[in-house]
């Protein structure tokens, strides 16, 4: 759900360098800890998950300025660690396609990767007590709220959005100029934070909260439906790769 749509040259070097460093450290730590023989067996599933994320992140829903990314779902299906690796690969491809600058790839990996880490970990923690579908809904909602909060705090810290009024928060402060898919030309221009809901024009934080509410409900429900489907036909998919010592 959360994604920083900033072209190169907007984010200070200290921020994007730290984003790259931390994201690479996390990827290295994940791959170092997991059983690589089992990871190799998961590569086809990881590739399919990355393809699904690329499609959903590139398709605007139309009725709300929001697109699903299924990072939390990746954490549930692949495990939190491999889910983060999938997010890294997806952001690398998106950066090459101009969906956000190359320099913000690391930051986007961290922001969206939180959804995979939190969503996957929370799902495994709650599944035994609440069941798969309720756990998927709760885990996705918590993961999306946390990643959105991190995105807003980051954009506010570099002065791209006004956290008091909520201005510029929708679409990550800046977004591509309108094109065929809405992501063709990453030229910086600020969007007014406005949203028409039920015939009522909302602005500022009211618009942000309306979009956030609808987006979280939508992605949480769709994620739960996908998890429910896999639990019926391929429950073996929803198993994390074991550590090396297992």
From TrEMBL:
Membrane topology field: Multi-pass membrane protein
Ranges that cross the membrane: 13-31, 43-64, 70-97, 104-123, 135-155, 195-218
Coiled-coil parts of chain: none
Compartment list: Cell membrane
Annotated GO CC locations: plasma membrane
GO process terms (BP): transition metal ion transport
Superkingdom of origin: Bacteria
Annotated keywords: Cell membrane, Membrane, Transmembrane, Transmembrane helix, Transport
Short name of any one Pfam family annotated for the protein: CbiM
UniProt-recorded name of the protein: Cobalt/nickel transport system permease protein
Organism lineage: Bacteria, Bacillati, Bacillota, Clostridia, Caldicoprobacterales
